[in-house]
Write a structure and sequence with these properties.
alpha+beta, 513 residues, six-stranded antiparallel sheet, 24% strand, single chain
């Protein structure tokens, strides 16, 4: 028993304290409006009057790094299995506030003493902006935490009346007290758990600038209590935030971690996340890669899978599965894998089948897609007509950079020189790759060099170098953002990770821009 936690055991302390909170009564969801939105979602995605994001088409495809392997050779060949959402139409962007899948959003905001002054004013402006952008069928809750929880608003529908009440609550936020990150996260989880009904999309947004050494030990039971289909976005504000806690939350929840280094980026960071939530094309995505019977009989086998998301290779190496997070419009998830190619195999046989199941936010049941089978030429000799798939080479570079950032952030705790060497190795490999001049590869190189600059013995701690490296690794692993473009703002129209026009539209008008 730890007296600091009022008699609760330290591991369960935050969760138990949060469970005792009276959150009040949530506003009821608008079932009639949800039903109308669902019907719109089933209508033609090209219709300007039915531009629901649930209608955004999804594509699945294979790519192999080259189209030929000599028949007499055995080789390890890399490939990727891609799940890509189309971009939203202009009509969908214009109508997003009215026809996007209704959302339940819980904002958990640090209001400890260190958040005083300009930080808190920017947070108030950002929350007010979110209230403005949410539609009448969305529900928003705002909780603040220091060493206690204050329920500024339970889940309230963002009607005109609801927005006025939320705006008053936001205006009254003030900084005080200490920082209990675990308690803040637990309170958000328990508020969502106590709902009697839920909207199609659920998200918890956590913002803190503080340190909480006790939080790590309490995170697992909090995350285990998280309601299903809840996305979690963690924002570390300023250079003094506890990046290890925020990164751990992202890892446990399969969510995102954003290092908001500059104060003025907090508005675009939240707005970009809101734009993503309003443009979700698919959730509960399960991808499966399977060798065909003929390929298996010929001796082909799957090798390593390269993904930050949950994945498994079957013991017989004939199939693999990957669980992917929510997919925003315009995004792609590319799972890199290796394929072991035997000598003597027949030419141009169907090698791989790819299958995806997913749910649409406003649709009943699951949808399923299958990719065209991947084939491979096996000529007697490889000639001048061999084709290198640059897109696969780019994704291999992304994986290489992510792994180097992961390793460097671990090594930096005890050996900054070794951490820099890890990044140098990735830089050398990417520069020597077939995709070295591709836009994403160039951004990866910029980020790796920026990460290397952070590994300076005199500034690593003061600049929160760990937070910067973990942000880069998290964002590149999820294929969402390059550090060099901005540590927090939405993708620009020339973003190396595609372009979500709703995120860009929201972020461009957010406080701080």
């Amino acid at each position: 028993i730890n007296a600091e936690y009022g008699g609760f055991s330290s591991r369960q302390a935050a969760l138990d304290r949060a469970n005792a909170i009276d959150f009040g009564t949530n506003d009821s969801i608008n079932r009639e409006a949800n039903s109308v939105a669902q019907k719109n979602a089933m209508a033609d995605a090209g219709s300007a009057s039915t531009a629901a994001t649930a209608s955004v088409p999804i594509d699945v495809s294979f790519g192999l790094e080259r189209n030929q392997v000599a028949k007499g050779e055995s080789a390890e060949l890399y490939g990727m299995f891609s799940v890509k959402a189309h971009q939203m139409s202009e009509a969908a962007v214009a109508a997003a506030q009215n026809v996007s899948a209704p959302m339940d959003i819980c904002c958990v905001v640090d209001n400890s003493g260190s958040m005083h002054g300009e930080k808190m004013e920017l947070v108030r402006q950002t929350l007010a902006y979110m209230v403005e952008k949410l539609g009448a069928n969305d529900r928003l809750s705002i909780l603040t935490f220091d060493n206690r929880i204050e329920v500024l608003s339970t889940l309230k529908r963002c009607t005109d009346t609801g927005k006025r009440e939320l705006a008053l609550a936001v205006a009254g936020i003030s900084a005080r007290g200490g920082t209990d990150i675990a308690l803040g996260l637990a309170a958000g989880v328990q508020l969502l758990n106590k709902r009697k009904e839920r909207n199609s999309i659920t998200s918890l947004l956590l913002l803190t600038d503080g340190q909480d050494s006790s939080a790590i030990a309490q995170l697992e039971p909090i995350v285990e209590a998280m309601p299903s289909r809840t996305s979690v976005a963690s924002f570390g504000f300023g250079k003094s935030h506890d990046a290890r806690v925020m990164d751990k939350i992202a890892a446990l929840t399969k969510g995102s971690f954003t290092f908001v280094e500059n104060l003025r980026d907090v508005g675009p960071a939240f707005a970009s996340t809101l734009g993503g939530l309003a443009s979700i094309a698919a959730v509960d995505i399960q991808a499966r890669i399977v060798l065909t019977e003929r390929a298996a009989a010929a001796g082909y086998a799957l090798g390593a899978l390269k993904s930050k998301f949950d994945h498994a290779l079957a013991p017989d190496k004939l199939s693999a599965t990957v669980t992917l997070p929510d997919l925003f419009a315009g995004e792609s998830r590319d799972t890199v894998f290796s394929l072991m190619c035997p000598a003597g195999a027949d030419d141009n046989i169907a090698l791989l089948e790819g299958h995806v199941t997913y749910a649409q936010p406003l649709a009943d049941g699951n949808a399923s897609l299958s990719a065209p089978a991947a084939t491979l030429g096996r000529p007697a000799t490889v000639g001048a007509d061999v084709v290198v798939n640059v897109a696969v080479a780019v994704q291999r570079n992304r994986v290489r950079a992510t792994e180097a950032l992961d390793l460097a952030s671990e090594l930096a705790a005890s050996d900054l020189a070794a951490a820099r060497e890890a990044l140098d190795g990735a830089i050398t490999d990417i520069e020597a790759s077939a995709a070295a001049s591709e836009p994403l590869s160039l951004e990866l190189l910029k980020d790796l060099r920026a990460a290397k600059e952070r590994l300076n013995p005199t500034t690593y701690q003061s600049s929160n170098g760990y937070g910067a490296l973990r942000h880069m690794a998290n964002q590149h692993g999820a294929q969402r953002q390059c550090w060099n473009a901005s540590s927090a703002a939405a993708p620009s129209s020339n973003s190396a990770y595609g372009y979500n026009c709703l995120q860009a539209a929201y972020a461009s008008s957010a406080p701080g821009m």
